Amino acid sequence: MIVPETTANPEHPARLVVIDDEPQIRRLLRLATESHGYETVEAASGQEGVLAVAQSRPEAVVLDLLLPDISGVEVIRRIREWSEVPILVLSALGQEKEKVSALDAGADDYLTKPFGVEELLARIRVMLRRALRPAESPHFSSGGLKVDLSARRVWAKGEEIHLTATEYALLRLFVRHAGKVLTHRQILQEIWGPKAVEQIHYLRVYVGRLREKIEADPARPLLLRTESGVGYRLALLD
After folding, report:
1. What are the extents of the domains in the chain?
2. Do 46 and 74 touch, CB atoms closer than 8 A?
3. What single string gives the DSSP state of each residue in 165-219?
4. What is the average pLDDT across 138-164?
5. CA-to-CA distance for 233 and 220, rounded, in angstroms?
6. Please, which pLDDT band fits residue 186 given cuts at 50, 70 and 90?
7. Which CATH architecture has domain 15-132?
8. Residue 173 contacts residue 191 (beta carbons within 8 Å)
9. Strand ranges inside 65-197, DSSP E
10. Is 91 exposed, middle or buried (0-12, 13-18, 19+ CB in 10 A)?
11. How large a percentage of the chain has pLDDT more than 70?
């Protein structure tokens, strides 16, 4: 079992599969992750990556979107047919549509190249912590936000707050996927239905209302964060 607050358990290092066709990127990722206690399995193509995930049963996957055989989005779709392993995608500047498609297909997070090693490791730690959260627990806490899903009660800024039905449904969705980037399309379809997937202004209005109620400073949100051009993420704060 992986320990949430550390990079790995000495008796069972967290295993990562790195899927990237560039040898220098794979080497960089392997050196960075193994120096922090992870075990790394490399794959140079999409087909090879899907097979590596199936055979090695990793705790997380780091996946480049541009691959020589099949797309990174297709790799995600194939993995999601049988596994919920956390997936972090690597994308280049200008790949906004591909990034959103990857998240819609089931990726958990993304990093835009070039990126720092510390940021990469931080994203991996967040994915692993999220994967370890008890799925059956109705209680959620992050920063000053506390939610009891079983009682439909919410506390923020030191007091219990009232949410409308739509605000609560939106917050519940973020809580269920805390730490994960949710795209505009995913949120709109879940809350307002498939006919509303292009109505991003609905979402902006309600996110603004939620921030007014749960953020200490709504103009500088720490909990409900905007992922520019992509969607939103409910941060897991200590």
Report:
1. 15-132, 139-234
2. yes
3. HHHHHHHHHHHHTTTSEEEHHHHHHHHH-GGGTT-HHHHHHHHHHHHHHH-SSTT
4. 94
5. 14
6. very high
7. 3-Layer(aba) Sandwich (3.40)
8. yes
9. 87-91, 109-112, 139-142, 145-148, 153-156, 159-161, 181-183
10. buried
11. 92
What 151-160 contacts at long range (C-beta under 8 Å, 24+ apart), as own/partner pairs, is: 154/214, 156/213, 156/214, 156/215, 157/214, 157/216
Helix (H, G, I), strand (E, B) or coil at 222: coil
Would the CA dihedral through 166, 171, 172, 176 be positive or negative? positive
3-state secondary structure of 158: coil
Cα–Cα distance for residue pair 166/170, rounded to 1 Å: 6
Integer CA distances (angstroms), 89 to 66, 73, 100, 118, 162, in order: 10, 9, 11, 16, 37
More confident residue, 64 or 135: 64
Type of residue numbered 218: P
CATH of 139-234, one of 3.40.1360.10, 1.10.230.10, 1.10.10.10, 3.40.630.10: 1.10.10.10
As given in the structure block, the two tokens for residue 233 are 């993420």
92, two tokens? 């280049």
Nearest alpha-carbon partner for 38 in 5, 19, 10:
10
Tell me the mean pLDDT in the region 90-94.
78
Distance of alpha carbon 220 from alpha carbon 226, whole angstroms: 10
